[in-house]
Specification:
By secondary structure, the chain is mainly α. It has one domain. The chain has 20 helices and no strands. Helix 2 packs across helix 3, helix 7 packs antiparallel against helix 8 and helix 15 runs antiparallel to helix 20. It is globular.
Length: 387
């Protein structure tokens, strides 16, 4: 009975979810976040402040709502300058098509590395993740970030690991909170990869000084929200699943900072006491970096894909995989209700990230402790008598 449900009902539900989400994400050509990126690149091409507010800059809630300019580090402005060479509406359409194509290529590459995942249900799940369709709706940059994640993940295991380390460094330059990954690599047998990634991140991050001087950093810092603003404002927008967002919704932003420090301590403990491999370091680095935030939107959840390809799905990972498919268009509808319903929906993706973290810890720590125990136990055994 259960096998029949899984074989027929689950695929039908996922197909329906994909179709509905695809229609929702492409229902119009409003620029949304993509407008902020286009405006940033267009301003830079004209010698203006790439972090200013312009006509195409996305405004939250309504055309008269608060502006949401580009908040990505200065190194992000250069690809946005290329995008801004096209008209914004045409650029958005091409960006969506390119994002879906790159996402498909990433899935195929991961299937090549993990052939045991080549199952129809797994394919449908990978295209049902809410973060994918919300990314396409907003015109966000998360799919290129996923390409960097997958490239680093796959290449670090090969002889051309320096290329993977460079890709990881570029990822960290674009999203500094993901520096947890190369830091954990320093605690594995791939210390050179971790050091290369961090050095590359520094080079990419500081490169705008050569081309634009310190002004662009001043302009970026001027629009970067403080911790208090993040916990009190952005945290209340549905979909932000960082620790600071979780506790900020409860009016306890300091608790989010404390949880972030505890998570860093846990990562350090696992890296120093346990024997992490590349998969362990990558898995912990990704989910920890997203939880540390301070702002981690729904679209960021697609960066967790390699974890679900590489690891055995224990119960926490299974529940997390289901929660990641909860469509954001449904979350928006409940989000307007307020009260307990809103809090529960806004916590959906937070719960998924926490479950991924729990699933990883359950897989990494007990196995390593068991191996250490068996090793110590063997040392206590008397040596076998010689014949």
């Amino acid at each position: 009975m259960l096998a029949g449900v899984r074989r027929f009902l689950f695929p039908l539900l996922l197909i329906a979810l994909i179709v509905w989400s695809a229609r929702w994400s492409t229902r119009d050509e409003i620029l949304r976040d993509f407008g902020s990126f286009w405006a940033s690149g267009h301003a830079a091409n004209q010698g203006k402040d790439p972090y200013g507010v312009y006509e195409e800059t996305f405004r939250v809630g309504s055309p008269s709502g608060p502006p949401a300019p580009n908040l990505n580090p200065p190194v992000s402005v250069y690809p946005f300058r290329l995008v801004a060479l096209l008209q914004p509406e045409k650029a958005l359409r091409l960006w969506r098509y390119a994002s879906l194509l790159v996402y498909t290529v990433v899935i195929l590459a991961l299937f090549g590395r993990y052939p045991e995942r080549r199952q129809p249900l797994f394919v449908l799940w990978a295209f049902s993740i809410a973060g994918l369709w919300h990314t396409l709706e907003l015109g966000q940059v998360y799919v290129p970030l996923l390409a960097l994640v997958a490239g680093a993940w796959l290449l670090l295991e090969t002889e051309v690991w320096p290329v993977g380390a460079v890709l990881l460094g570029l990822l960290v330059a674009l999203k500094p909170n993901l520096a947890v990954w190369p830091l954990l690599l320093l605690l594995t047998q791939k210390r050179a990869a971790g050091a290369t990634a961090l050095a590359t991140a520094c080079v990419f991050s500081l490169s705008p000084l050569v081309f634009d001087g310190p002004t662009i950093f001043k302009e970026w810092l001027a629009v970067t929200p403080s911790l208090h603003e993040t916990a009190g404002g952005m945290a209340r927008i549905g979909g932000n699943f960082s620790f600071i967002a979780m506790t900020g919704r409860l009016g306890l932003p300091a608790a989010g900072l404390a949880l972030s420090l505890l998570l860093l301590g846990l990562d350090g403990y696992l890296g120093l006491v346990e024997t992490l491999d590349l998969t362990d370091a990558g898995s912990l680095g990704l989910v920890s970096g997203l939880l540390l935030g301070p702002v981690s939107w729904v679209g960021y959840t697609i960066l967790l894909l390699p974890i679900f390809f590489a690891r055995r799905w224990n119960l926490p990972l299974k529940i997390a995989a289901a929660l990641l498919c909860f469509p954001f268009w449904a979350a928006i509808r409940v989000d307007t209700a307020g009260g307990t319903e809103r809090l529960l929906v806004e916590s959906t993706y937070s719960a998924a990230a926490l479950l991924v973290l729990a699933g990883l810890v359950l897989q990494i720590a007990p196995n390593r402790h068991a191996d250490a125990f068996r090793s110590r136990f063997r040392l206590l055994q008397p040596a076998p008598a010689r014949p």
